[in-house]
Amino acid sequence: MSGSDALAVREWWTRLGLPGLIDIHTHFLPPQVMAKVRAQFDAAGPLIGRPWPLHYRDTDEALVETLRSFGIERFTALSYAHKPDMADWLNEWAAGFAARVPEALVCGTFFPEQSAATYVEGRLDTVEVFKIHVQVGNFSVLDPLLDDTWGLVAEAGTPVVLHAGSGPVPTAYTGPEPVADLLARHPRLQLVIAHMGAPEYAAFLELAESYERVHLDTTMAFTDFFSEMGGVFPADLLPRIRDLGLAGKVLLGSDFPNIPYPYLHQLESLERLDLGDDWLRAVCHDNAESLLRP
Asked: Each residue of 162-214: pLDDT tens digit?
């Protein structure tokens, strides 16, 4: 990462009159887990589906300094479990990471297992953002083992960044239908739908319009890389995305560091939608600030 990259990002948000950026969708993981994640990207693994050359690859310390150089005020350390007895170990690691990194939000995750409600309830006073990855976890959001947990999280109002869209590769549990059923059971869930719900953009957008606490994040959406994957965002939906953004319901996400292009490209991809500076200010800072405010 060059100094010119950091300067370009800072110039971008300075022009908008922002104090910095808030990124709701970044990943920091225990080293052994991150190594396995990177290996999946390097191998274009079965849940990735295409070459995915990582633009950022370094130690946690160096990656945090990169985000600081960009002027990212707050960011997440989103982890996600893919087997039992893993989630709360990840939660413990994430709590330690946030204790070391002042800009990092305290993040958590959960998995369908008998202990889920117990360990989630024990962390509701500290976790600021949960993450669930249906595709990698290979489970349904409707799994009966999670029903009590969803109830606890809905009552607490803690945001959940939920990857439930079928991109980049669909599985048996991805798609908007299970999420719609989940919201019918727990309408007060504070969900942030990752990747704008790609590729089921319209269905997830409708959920954000229908439920007060459902949001969308911009992660990788609108970028050239996503468009090449067949994830082109329908132009006829853009007026509704503008309205949602101005209503506080679209948030900046990047997927840093696991992205195949410079960080600035996500920002420029949002700007070229031509939805206005007020929309960019809301999406890139103000909406997340409001969501995360105690």
From this structure: 999 998 889 999 999 999 999 999 999 999 999 999 999 999 999 999 999 99
Q: Phi then psi for 236, rounded to 5 degrees?
A: -70, -10
Query: 52 near 43, Cβ under 8 Å?
Result: no
Q: Tell me how far apart the alpha carbons of residues 200 and 198 are, in angstroms, rounded to a whole number.
A: 5
Interaxial angle between packed helices 176-185 and 147-156, expressed in degrees from 0 to 180 and rounded to the nearest 10? 70
Residue 214 dihedral angles phi and psi, to the nearest 5°: -100, 130
CB contact at 8 A, 107 and 94? yes
Identify whether the C-beta of residue 208 lies closer than 8 Å to the C-beta of residue 193: yes
- CA dist., res. 137 & res. 62, Å (int): 28
Q: Output the CA angle 93-40-193, nearest 5 degrees.
A: 65
Cα 187 → chain centroid: 20
Between CA 168 and CA 198 the distance in angstroms is: 8
Distance CA 117, CA 148 (A): 6
